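Handout, page 2. Input:
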Amino acid sequence: MQLRSSPSSPFGRKVKMATYILGFDDQVRPVLTDTLDPNDRICDVNPLGKIPALEDDGNIYYDSRVILEYLDAKAGGGKIIPASGPTRYEALTRAALMDGILDAAILVIYERRMRPEDKYVESVVERQRGKIVRGLEAIAAENRSYSNGAMPDIGEIGLACVLDYLDFRKQVNWRDHAPNLASWLADFAAMVPGYEDSMPPID
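Output:
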């Protein structure tokens, strides 16, 4: 398997962590990808030019949601995505919330880095920060503890990536809005394979 991604991508990190959790880490060859480089082959693999993208047995899978489902099925199914019933849809809904928070967090970075200074729109940034904060508060209100050992579900993988990405890029201080998630993250980090190995680099 080849995984096209970037060490700083939270969506790529979700996939990388899942390969450890599901026992595929030694079967995956990472391909460093720069979506802003016009010479990068990512558009030949994913016409949207987005990461992550996984190639396996001549097939290509994207985005991270599809890749996680593919890896779960490859591992026998029902591992990181519950196979059926209310628990499946509850996990998928939590995963969708985490992806939405990450989308908003990335848009904050894009607005800051990609727009000329005279085109920067603070209201756009604040709108995205509002999504992040509301998402964090909704998660915190559930007052969850981490108890799934070495096999988290996709929503929990996503939450760990959310918290660490916010620490990495500092769009908001999540501890101001969801302080009870600090113990959740500590427990997750202590139990889940690939957590440290998939951590984004320090700038």
